[in-house]
Write a structure and sequence with these properties.
The protein folds into 2 domains: 172 residues, Transcription factor LuxR-like, autoinducer-binding domain (Beta-Lactamase); 55 residues, Orthogonal Bundle (Arc Repressor Mutant, subunit A). Helix content is 51%, strand content 12%. It contains 11 helices and 5 strands; from the N terminus they run H-H-E-E-H-H-E-H-H-E-E-H-H-H-H-H. It has a 5-stranded antiparallel beta sheet with strand order 2-1-5-4-3, with helices on both faces. It is elongated, with a radius of gyration of 21 Å. The two termini are 31 Å apart.
Length: 252
Amino acid sequence: MQSRRDYLERLTNAPSIEELWLLHCEKMAEFGFDRLLYGFTRYRTTTSLGDPEDFVILTNHSTTYTDVFMGKGLYFHAPMVRWALENEGACSWRIVADMMASGTLTESERKVIDFNRSMDVRAGYSISFKSISPRTKGAIALTANSGMEQDQVDAIWKEHGRDIVIYNNVAHLKILTLPYAGPSRELTKRQREALQWVGDGKTTQDIALLMGLTAATVEKHLRLARENLSVETTAQAVLKAAFLNQMFILEA
């Protein structure tokens, strides 16, 4: 097991979400959690988590699992997702058994539990990160190795839980600083540059002069940026690109 210092040094220096996620999955596997599902939204309301296309989703679960849990919207009815939205900190999945025993689960929530059990997602812990605004929420589900019981997981948590929470908090904060394109939303260098100049208050004519392009070409780059980011206005594109850390990126 790599030392705490070595892991945190590598994690905080990770240049991409892909490298960070691989490193973090390896670290959590050392504690007995071989499947992770991280989610973050900046567009939460009282009735919605926002457009799933805008979520930051990282996982090493199989597509057989994620195509149903995420793709078919089961996550929205998951008891531990409900817990994460209403709380902050770490929680044993033992609470699910307590919910079932108390009869507080809805039919939709029971269907999620049945699906998870069919996919051997039975024991684990969830961590709900401290929100930076009412619109944001991030959480991670740590699924224990196949065959492990919740008693075993709770014993691991009793010994290593504080370290695990620290590692996940640092990973979460680092993720928020790294560029994330999501499905087909990565901007080209020209689209990003045009948006950067808009963010600096430049007009289309100004940008054309600065980039050595025609005004029509600048408008084309801005239109494609809006399409990539699925927004209607250039102002929205600037804001969303900033949220996704796709503005002012240092080229490799």
